[in-house]
Amino acid sequence: MESDSASDHDEDSKQRVGKEATKLSTFEGLVARTMVPITYDSWLKVSEGVREGLWQYVLFVVDPKSRKQILQSIGKKWRNFKHYLYAKFIKNRSKDPKANLFKPPKDYPFIKKEDWKVFVSHRVTKKWEEKSMKAKNTRAHHKYNHRLSKKGYDGLINDIMQETGKTEEEINRTVLWKKARELKIGGYDADMKTIVDKIDERRLSLLRRAMSVVKGLFSRVEEELIQASTHLYQINVRYTLGKHTHTRTRVYNRTRVYSRTRMYGRT
């Protein structure tokens, strides 16, 4: 099964661009939920055969070079789906004796009963709880998470490129960082505003320093050009006045001859 639509990729940056990029992202989520067993402990353990099957199943016409990016995106959505299943159907019910944790959720009939049992059994172990707590503590240190939708940074870069006409290389990384954390109503929350102000101050300081360096370079180049020009002028004057010219002038009915031999190499 194929699609008439295409999700384009920028040849240099390999970022997704075009109106079909969001559709592709949504489709990847569907593939991640329905085609990758939740029994795998991590994406790294998903077999190459499964990954190749996912790649071949993608309905959109994409550049073959984007295989790695497509699979990475599917892997991220698969991990998010597993986290959602744990948070909604296991985490808050694991200590409820009446809860039938091993019954697959009706919302996802494609999840096999045996796969769900393996998934739950792994999530209720002490080892998993310790791992989950460690990951939670790590995320707690991420104070400045972005507010982007599913389009992510790829979509943000594409939007800025369309609005400004700049290439990806011309877009400053700090601009992306700030744009990704803006509130929907504009501006930033208090904690974020402090960081944004520091970024702006730092950029302004670097800009002033760069301008000072450039100004100094121009002044130095101008001075050297003046010195070189003066030096060349002096050489020309000495060269011209130090040579005899081969010409004739008549003074009081006499002919005075000046040699021009050395200057023009003629006799």
Automatic annotation (TrEMBL):
It comes from the Eukaryota. PANTHER family: OS10G0338966 PROTEIN-RELATED (PTHR33018), TRANSPOSASE, PTTA_EN_SPM, PLANT (PTHR33018:SF31). This is Transposase, Ptta/En/Spm, plant.
